[in-house]
Amino acid sequence: MKIRSICVAAALACAASGVQAATFGELSVPTESYLGVYATPFFADSVSFSLTGLSTVYSDTKIYGGAGGYALFSGATMIGGLHTLGSAASFSGLTAGTYTFGYFGMGSGLSAVTLSANAVPAVPEPASYAMLLAGLGMVAGMARRRLS
């Protein structure tokens, strides 16, 4: 539990700092990627992006020559918990706004981290529209039956 608290504090400090390694801009369906190379034993970095509407964000990370963790932040609030560098995660139900991936780790002198992310807008399935129309048809049929 103590190590988790330390990791969360490090990720939060990274996300809250004024130094940002990169900005994806508006995140969308084409996957955006970032590569960070670090020649120090400890590293922390962040990548910001924005969303224009309700979306699900998919992320995938790889680390070479080290270990660490990452999290998604909206301001100073962590969304979805802490994830291990080298793993994939998805974050659903994100509204329009600016978000930051904060990551940190320890390396063996030379480390590289890749972060790839894309956002898929929340669009109703065609079956949802079919169910809506069927429900409206049933309500209209019941109303018509009551009138006659």
From TrEMBL:
Q: Which stretch is the leader sequence?
A: 1-21
Pfam families from the entry?
PEP-CTERM
Output the InterPro entries linked to this UniProt entry: Ice-binding_C
Q: Name the residues that span the membrane.
A: 67-89, 101-120
Record keyword Membrane present: yes
Residue ranges constituting the Ice-binding protein C-terminal domain according to the UniProt record: 122-146
* Keywords linked to the UniProt accession: Membrane, Signal, Transmembrane, Transmembrane helix
Concerning NCBIfam families, the annotation shows:
PEP_CTERM (TIGR02595), PEPxxWA-CTERM (NF035944)
Q: What protein is this chain from?
A: Ice-binding protein C-terminal domain-containing protein
State the species of origin: Niveibacterium umoris
Lineage of producing organism: Bacteria, Pseudomonadati, Pseudomonadota, Betaproteobacteria, Rhodocyclales
